[in-house]
């Protein structure tokens, strides 16, 4: 075995106008959770325990789009989704449409371990959460003033391009209706108003066991009941004996391409190494969409790929460490 490796992402499709201070905040959070995962791995924690630990931490911090700080639906509510997978035996658990569960990733693991199912959604997931005794909060816990403002700024008219709430407003004027030049789009929306910052973590431990976990609030201004790629095993999340993968970005494109599973498939059937498999999938399976992914292999390698930018951090036992956003 090649030792442990870990990668974390905070979403792809980064606004080119993102202020430097917001970039610094993201890097600081990524560094903190990466070090949290490294410490656990050095203490011989399992890959499954580490991905849950790291994603729980990201769900608790409002900076990215998962748990507290999640993107809001068209009705101004938070509907959360998450999935987790243990590559050593391909067990998996996923939840969608949860509105009161403080840490959806832990509920997903309980679905995997304490139920006969792999996926629970909406009222069924909420009922199961209460049966399992997980921490419950009011939906308002997940809603931040920044995301309320962002939802209000989303134009209902087609093709309206507005300032992201993360870009400071000048002269104290409201930004509603002010157009900016930003050609990058995801799901037909300008990246500046997309809020695609799903979080995820992939780990291989010292025993060569791979695991993956992904959590999100989904697309800002999404229709109530919309389910993205993050809870879908094989699309947004996948782990097997060969690798672990977590995806982020344009959910519908990731679903169509079954991106996470494709990385494992080309490793298994084409014999590609991890980075080669990631590159192949990003180039050949995305079909014009925009996305990013992180991956680890059972030999201790770490890799990532993205369309234009991705909040990311990764490390390996042999001393490699990187935290970045752009190329």
UniProtKB/TrEMBL annotation:
CDD domains linked: Asparaginase_2 (cd04701)
Name this polypeptide is given: beta-aspartyl-peptidase
Active-site residues per Swiss-Prot or TrEMBL entry: 198 (nucleophile)
Reactions this protein catalyses: Cleavage of a beta-linked Asp residue from the N-terminus of a polypeptide
Example of a GO MF term: asparaginase activity
Gene Ontology BP terms: proteolysis
EC class name: hydrolase
Keyword annotations of the record: Autocatalytic cleavage, Hydrolase, Protease
InterPro entries in the record: Ntn_hydrolases_N, Peptidase_T2
Site entry (Cleavage), positions: 197-198
Record note on quaternary structure: Heterotetramer of two alpha and two beta chains arranged as a dimer of alpha/beta heterodimers.
């Amino acid at each position: 075995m090649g030792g442990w490796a870990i990668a974390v992402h905070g979403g792809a499709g980064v606004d080119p106008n993102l202020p430097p201070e917001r970039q610094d905040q993201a890097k600081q959070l990524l560094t903190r959770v990466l070090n949290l995962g490294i410490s656990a791995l050095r203490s011989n924690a399992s890959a499954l325990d580490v991905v849950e630990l790291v994603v729980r931490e990201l769900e608790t911090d409002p900076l990215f789009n998962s748990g507290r700080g999640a993107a809001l639906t068209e009705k101004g509510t938070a509907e959360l989704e998450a999935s987790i997978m243990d590559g050593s035996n391909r067990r998996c658990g996923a939840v969608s449409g949860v509105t009161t569960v403080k840490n959806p990733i832990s509920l997903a693991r309980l679905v995997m371990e304490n139920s006969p199912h792999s996926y629970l959604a909406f009222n069924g997931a909420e009922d199961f959460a209460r049966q399992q005794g997980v921490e419950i909060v009011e939906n308002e816990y997940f809603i931040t003033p920044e995301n309320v403002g962002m939802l209000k700024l989303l134009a209902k008219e087609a093709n309206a391009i507005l300032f992201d709430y993360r870009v400071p407003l000048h002269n104290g004027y409201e930004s509603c209706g002010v157009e900016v030049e930003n050609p990058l789009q995801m799901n037909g929306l300008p990246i500046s108003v997309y809020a695609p910052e799903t979080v995820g973590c992939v780990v291989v431990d010292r025993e060569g066991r791979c695991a993956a976990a992904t959590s999100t609030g989904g697309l800002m201004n999404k229709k109530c009941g919309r389910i993205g790629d993050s809870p879908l095993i094989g699309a947004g999340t996948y782990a097997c004996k060969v690798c672990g993968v977590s995806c982020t970005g344009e959910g519908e494109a990731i679903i169509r391409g079954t991106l996470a599973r494709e990385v494992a498939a080309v490793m298994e059937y084409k014999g590609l190494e991890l980075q080669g498999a990631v590159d192949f999938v990003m180039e050949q399976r995305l079909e014009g969409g925009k996305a990013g992914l992180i991956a680890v292999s059972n030999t201790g390698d770490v890799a990532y790929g993205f369309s234009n930018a991705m909040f990311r951090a990764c490390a390996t036992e042999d001393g490699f460490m990187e935290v970045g956003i752009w190329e």
